[in-house]
Amino acid sequence: MTDKIRVVACTMILKQIHLTNFRNFEKNDFRFSPYLTLIVGENARGKTSLLEAVFTSVYGTGFRETREIELIRWDVGDNLVESHYEEHDQESFFQVRMQKSSETTVRKTYYVNKTGKSSHQYRGMQTQAVLFAPEQIQIITGSPSRRRRYFDEVISAVDRDYKKKIRYYENALRKRNKILEHYEDELKLFEELKFWDSYLIEHGAYISNKRASYIKYLNTHPSVNGKNFSITYEQNLFSHERLNEVKKREYRLRRTLIGPQKDDFVFRLHFPQEKNVGLYGSRSEQRMAIFWLKLNELSYFELHSKIKPLLLLDDIFSELDEHNRELVMGMIKEHQTIATTTEEEIKDIAEMPEELIRL
């Protein structure tokens, strides 16, 4: 297994979830084992939707690449995800309500023990969750924006100011680009950009430093199953020096050419020879790289939150050979796990108490 830091972490146990108008669920209750819960059923029966509801109870958002409004049943105006957790014999009751505010957007409200909370307060009282799904191989093989989104989600889970900095940076970047797009006089342009340049330098430095810190953490825990991985952070700084270098090109092309919105991350395997896993790794090596990433994500959350995260597995067993299944079982024995599968016999491999949800 990976060389990870062992920390003393308490556990928030998810006991039950009640769904009202969440995707295809109209009114449903589900109970979970403190150890392993298997959501079993054929494809298109709602297994992933139930797992996504658990994820939503933690983060207030889904994990699929769809519009957020699709989390609400198509024929109603709102939904409700209610979850019961237990920690040190104390029960907590969390609620996330989504209401359609237009044809494409939703408004969210949050409650803890029936008291209204901001999203910031809600997240501060919730646990963490780590999702492991076959399509996450795209973190390695997909576009740089896919990788940036993954790293931003992980860092935001432990640093709530980071999410705000990302939002402020993106808003300022849009305003700077609009100025570049419509300018007519270069002298006036220079004056107009002064404020936004300083603003983006400040917020961009925060983003870059936090990304670099997480990459450093990953690179100091490189080993899984005898293989060593690392990530090269291809940092694109926003600074006065670099602005001077690209100024003429930016004026000509009328858009911002530098900054952390252009960062990328290269996954490398170091044995038997060093290679870029995204470009030259086999499918097996790419899966192992994701496994390494998720193991470190679990330990990173434990280190920073002092809470053992929920482990959410979305139909990964069909993708794994016997050896990799054993590695996953090692993860399961360390965390409360909720897994979707079409293979009920997985419960026999796990050799631990489990709850079975059939859909």
Topology:
Layout lengths: L9 E2 L1 E10 L2 E7 L4 E5 L6 H13 L18 E10 L2 E11 L5 E7 L2 E3 L1 H7 L3 E4 L5 H4 L2 H15 L1 H23 L3 H34 L3 E2 L2 E8 L5 H14 L10 E6 L5 E2 H4 L2 H23 L1 E2 L1 E5 L7 H11 L4 E5 L4 H5 L3 E5 L1
Parallel strand pairs: 1-14, 4-16, 4-17, 9-15, 15-16
Antiparallel strand pairs: 2-3, 2-5, 5-6, 6-7, 7-8, 10-11, 11-12, 12-13
Helix pairs in contact: 4-5, 5-6
Shape: globular
Order of helices and strands: EEEEHEEEEHEHHHHEEHEEHHEEHEHE
Largest sheet: 6 strands, antiparallel
- Mean pLDDT across every amino acid position: 90
CATH architecture of the largest domain: 3-Layer(aba) Sandwich
- Whole-number tally of structural domains: 2
SS-derived structural category:
alpha/beta
What amount of the residues lies in strands? 25-35%
CATH topology of the largest domain, which one? Rossmann fold
Short description:
The protein has 359 residues and is an alpha/beta fold. The protein contains 11 helices and 17 strands. The protein has a 6-stranded antiparallel β-sheet with strand order 3-2-5-6-7-8. The protein has a 5-stranded parallel β-sheet with strand order 9-15-16-4-17, sandwiched between helices. Strands 10-11-12-13 form a 4-stranded antiparallel β-sheet.
